[in-house]
Design goal:
Layout (H helix, E strand, L loop, with lengths): L1 H12 L10 H5 L4 H5 L2 H6 L2 E5 L4 E5 L2 H9 L26 H12 L4 H23 L7 H18 L24 H9 L14 H22 L8 H29 L9 H13 L7 H31 L2 H14 L9 H4 L4 H13 L7 E2 L5 E5 L2 E5 L3 E5 L1 H6 L23 H16 L2 E5 L8 H14 L1 E3 L3 E3 L7 E5 L1
Amino acid sequence: MWMLVDKKVLDLVKKLPGMLGDNSFTRYNFRTWEMHDRCRSHHEMGDIFLTVTPGSNWLYIASPDALMDMFRRRSDFPQCIEHTEMINVFGTNLGTVEGQQWKTQRKMIATCFNEQNFEIVWSESLSLARDMLKYWVKKPSINSSADDLRTLSLHVLAGSGFGQSFEFAGDDERSSTSLSGDYKTSLRTCIFCAAMLPSSWILPDPPMRRRDKSLNCILIMALGPKSLSKARPWLPKSWKLRRLADRCADFQRYMTELYKDEIAQARLQTDSSASKTQMSSLVRASQDEAKNGAGLTESEIYGNMFMLNFAGHDTTEQSFTFAIHFLAANPTVQDWVSEEVRSVLCENQAEWDYATSFPRLKRCFAVLLETLRLYTPITVAKWTAQGTASLEVNGKTFIVPPNTMVIPSYTTVHTEPKYWGTKGTFLGWSEGARDCPASQFSQVEFVAAVATLLRDWQVDPVPLDGGESPESARNRVLDLIKNDSGPVLLLQMLHPERASLTWTKR
């Protein structure tokens, strides 16, 4: 509940005079306070400090060596499952289990991400980015960049996860009925809009703000499909909650049929002829392990597919949105990226080969790294569970008590040059055994899309009426990123539509 009201409550408290409004409660008691604080607290208190709250103690660490030590010691500093249980929507998954269960699921998930699947990601990203660009360049200005990038991300997941390809449709090209056909052939309706509710067309007009869409995702996680299923017969059809319940039922039904189809195909196909989608890989790997009594249950497969698509969708879309607006404010970076893309890739996109092209597009990849350095969409929390753990920081040994949250200070190690080095200073995909299993997936998608967008085109902010200069427009976009970004479900630009963009041919 505090996630929904923290900033609003604290904004009121901060208006109180003196220390009543300026204190540790208002400074540290909201999500992503670290983004606003950056290095300040560590400059004041050192490489490690503790905040004490009625709920638990929170230990913040900025020492790269200590961070790497913590990530390596998975048994001493496990993931805090209490904080991730909300994504047990359709079954337990990699993000919500520990111990042997985690090892089994991690092994299964690893089979989903392979070179054959990355080939699918590459081709889907190129095609969708090309069509998105065609939509953008037809318009004098675009304020739907975030929603369009969300569509791209969803469709890449549809192709790579389930073997379903969709054509790109821009924000004003989608209608409330354009994808309302048979649920079995409309993956976007049945899985993505059910699970993550990204598109305003699944709820009544007026269209939701992006923040509202993410709040609906929180709602489905809080209530769960079982509760929604029980309440569904009693909810009026006009209620948004009824529509949410309907789409959860669609999702469950679709996943069940898809699972049965994959089981049947696995009996008929050899490994070499099998589909390389994530769903296919997960089902086959689970069947292989089941022979040794270690496969995934049906609900665990559903849970992991939801987790992969939820995590892969939201994190990628937020990173894309930050990156496009950063690029719009930095034309010299665009020129730098375009120079490399032109040297690596010819004009004919059909000849852009994943195996030979992706490793060479280092500047596109650098844009992703820099975006994640400044605005990491999701951070990792560890804890000590029921035991104590020792941690060495700058030659001193600290004993961390039980039930202590242990938090890597992402923004500090990412932005304070004194910490920079080879290990423990870039945590965009976390570190250690529980790092992001889909890191290369996101890299391939991002690089392919950025290469498509910037090879022959340039993006700029649209100046405001009244003769705003290009330089002032770029500074305005940077100010919007800095001052109007915050947490909803993940860290995101709250109102990217306030910065209209325009695309011009180089």
